[in-house]
Amino acid sequence: MKHHPGKVKEKPYCTVTHMTAxxxxxxxxxxxxxxxxxxxxxxxxxxxxxxxxSMSTIAARLGGSKGTLYNYFKxxxxxxxxxxxxxCGAAADRISEVSAEGEPVDALTRLGEQYLQHLYSEETVQMxxxxxxxxxxxxxxxxxxxxxxxxxxxxxxxxxxxTAKARGALDIADCALAAEQFxxxxxxxxxxxxxxxxxxxLKPAEIRLHIAQAVSAFMTLYGPQRVR
Length: 228
Fold this sequence. Notes:
The chain is mainly α and 228 residues long. The chain is built from 10 helices and no strands.
């Protein structure tokens, strides 16, 4: 048999029957599509401000039509309100989830640190500045922000303080007032200075120190062994 060094044995062609069919990509659910809309809309609102942002711009960035966008949100106001509820409601939920068990110092420290991390986050700051700018034109949006964010968070803290008081871990006459005082202690003057762009956001170590001081002051007022 003659040897042909230059001749390469040809491989059989791959036919469709030899290929493994790939599964079709899963279509996003309505909830997933809604989350995508909120994410893109938040970017547009933060970049352009509420007044300049438009449903057309948001739809274009999503890669769809305004009709699809209106299937989820009837107006720009409704879309922005959903942003407020999503961002502020999540922070209020974290306050409401504080366990009634354990020592108040531990619970309040954890809550306070989460609270400040939320206040100093870029998303929260941008949302707050938009709301302040729009409050006169659209007081309803400001009301929604207050109710789903600060008011709801304070009510969650009040509920925790009442539970801690009932088991003798705290000595408080007015839990609603005490909740307001604790959140004010957490913010201190630094938060206002930050909103006015006078100081940078607090670093994690600064937040921990600030909250430790706030909790210490609060327990001096309302600890079970406080001197009357």
